[in-house]
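Supplementary Methods, section 5.1.

A reviewer requested that the exact input to the structure prediction be made available. We therefore reproduce it here, unchanged from the version used in the analyses.
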Amino acid sequence: MVKRFAVVVLLTAVAAAMLGLAPARAQTASSDIANFYRGKQMRIIVRSGPGGGFDLYSRLLARFIIKHIPGNPTTVVQNMPAGGGIAAITYVGEVAPQDGTVITMIGQSLPLDQVLGYTPSFKQDLRTFHWIGNLSDSNLLTYTWHTRGIKSVNDARSREVLLGSAGAGDVSSWIPAVYNKVLGTKFKIIGGYQSGAEVKLAMERGEIDGFGANPLAALMSATPQYIHDKLVTVLVQIGLRKEKELPDVPLLMELARTDYEREVLGFITNALSVGRPIGVGPGVPADRVDALRKAFDATLVDPEFVAEAKRSGMDIAPTDGVYVQRLIEDVQGATAELRTKVRALMPPR
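The structure derived from this sequence is encoded token-by-token as follows.
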């Protein structure tokens, strides 16, 4: 009996010691992260030029996330507008230090582009990157300027409509081509613009009729008057549910007329629902990825961040990094048969 009691006491002591080690280990890990980031300068690489949605959201995140990263590093935003965003993600994956000091935000179309084989210049698999989160789950909109007289998809079936694109690899360059093949529209893509801001200026000047695809969040952050003052007519929105600001605008899925159309448009809708993920390179250590995810989550509930986003008219509807990681893996895992069907709809690259 004495021996049994002694064993119980010993086991209890060991368990207590182990429990005591857990907080100590967590404290050590946090200290290691703080020691690494202290005195460092982080860079957020923006895939487009200044003034567009990618730029505005990246700068907002840059201002506040450093408050929540142990060690409180400084941050700088670097614009890298080339190749429809391919230059930025290639830099982060292949050139930038793989240490958790370089972050970027990719376009909604890149996971789909890669699974269809449309990004040969981008060699790495997006599944190998570490995704930190998504600032806003926002539907993609195709819209025209209010003076052009194009009020619906039906109007675009009967006349040529010039839509601006923010780059060859950008979703705004190929979504209208899908509309043409599946819905019978007559959209013509006009490229050469470096950012969404440039596309919108060209639209206002009358050089083009509208924007091929632009997230509502980006539109509301940079030009909310477009919606508030009804300066644009939104023809279609791509997402899993309608935006509250656009209850009467059809979802892409609602325009499908056959099983085939429902299958391909449904896949495209799901693929684009990954939003604009924010991530770091494949070689970043797991503990720093975890620290950045925690910092991202903390930023999104930071009262100062929330107030600034509201002041700037930015829609914030975040998705955590683990969920974004799973979405991208699901898109990349599409069957060969489905890839072939969707690829047949895409414009030549």
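The chain is about 45% helix and 15% strand. These observations are discussed further in the main text.
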